[in-house]
Amino acid sequence: MLVHLHPTHPQERLIRQTVDLLRGGGVIIYPTDTIYALGCDLRQPKAFEKICRLKNIDPSKAQFSLICRDLSNLSDFAKNLDTPLFRFIKAHIPGPFTFILPASKEVPKLMQSKKSTIGIRVPDHPICQQLIGALGNPIISTTLPGEWVEEYTDPVYMQERFGKQVDAILDGGIGGTEVSTIVDCTGPEPEITRQGAGVIR
Description:
alpha/beta
């Protein structure tokens, strides 16, 4: 199902419908401030497993992120956050960054890496912000499978390829082509492990 959303002022009715779908265990493709992504409700483990099957990966080896609206619930999902690190993250959100942090007990075990870490994202995108705000908790998120640029930028192409594998594709227009910058915050100093669209200030 292709859902056409206004890219800067998404329709509330369609956002509510998408939230109902997520709460019911649905899987969506949605736009972020980088590329389109696969997502599901944090509280729906079967939806998480569905995404893993779609990507053909072992759930125990999956490296997904939590998409958050802001930092208000950061301490719920990450631990060992000192003041300098919190300020560093705050200075770079919302934006195209994924911060790798030590996972708290609130993060479902199925999402934690062997190192017990979790990726946290706060995208600068109106559809993301409205969706997570209405849902009331983070979205589990991962990149779309594929090698061709159309596979993660063009919603119409996504509908042709993934339409029967996901429950909705949120069309917010043509997406970006750069992934997020990954910043590992588990060591003494934040370290960039993947340079993407985000530039550290």
